[in-house]
């Protein structure tokens, strides 16, 4: 089993990482730690309120095989969150894989993790002028870029980003990861049944709600 973490900060984007997190947990049975700099409520850009399971003070970034950074429509609160950046900085020379999408490569740049690495991002290019820690000569205009222990992606390519991360850890995602078309399936293929054992387990669980 691999150890995964997702970082939370104000206005983080669920949509950009849920292909990845759902595949990790539902398909492959992995557990994900949701971490933030403080133990408080964080709202996603979709409006969902989330409370982290752990804080950056309670864990070390090198405890994880992969740290996932969702994008955010407002990156400044995270960018100037000293606890969060300090947490990331401890992984600058580690083997931990950092998977950052949309605007979140900005955080990796600030933490020194992108130093000397090719990367992409969905932030506005004027940010490369506003923040001297961004190595703009290493910016690559592609949907997903991998360089060493860093995987970066643009938000609209969330599926390709997820696939890149999953393949990095040798999960079998097939040739058409989350690209199935409804019209390609027959009625029989779209009719689902439990096994007898699974149905029996469901009926046992149902009893608790029927009593």
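Sequence proposed for the structure above (211 residues):
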């Amino acid at each position: 089993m691999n150890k995964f973490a997702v970082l939370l900060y104000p206005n983080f984007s669920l949509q950009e990482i849920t292909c990845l997190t759902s595949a990790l947990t539902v398909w492959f049975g992995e557990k994900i730690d949701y971490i933030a700099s403080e133990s408080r409520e964080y709202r996603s850009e979709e409006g969902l309120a989330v409370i982290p399971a752990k804080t950056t003070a309670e864990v070390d970034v090198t405890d994880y095989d992969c740290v996932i950074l969702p994008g955010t429509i407002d990156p400044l609160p995270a960018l100037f969150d000293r606890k969060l950046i300090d947490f990331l900085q401890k992984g600058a020379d580690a083997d931990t894989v950092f998977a950052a999408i949309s605007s979140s490569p900005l955080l990796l740049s600030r933490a020194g993790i992108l130093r000397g690495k090719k990367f992409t991002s969905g932030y506005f290019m004027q940010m490369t002028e506003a923040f001297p820690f961004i190595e703009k000569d290493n910016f690559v205009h592609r949907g997903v870029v991998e360089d060493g222990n860093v995987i970066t992606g643009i938000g609209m390519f969330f599926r390709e980003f997820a696939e890149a991360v999953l393949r990095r850890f040798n999960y079998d995602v097939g040739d058409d990861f989350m690209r199935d078309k409804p019209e390609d399936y027959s009625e029989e293929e779209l009719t689902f049944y439990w096994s007898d054992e699974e149905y029996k387990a469901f009926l046992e669980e149902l009893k608790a709600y029927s009593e």
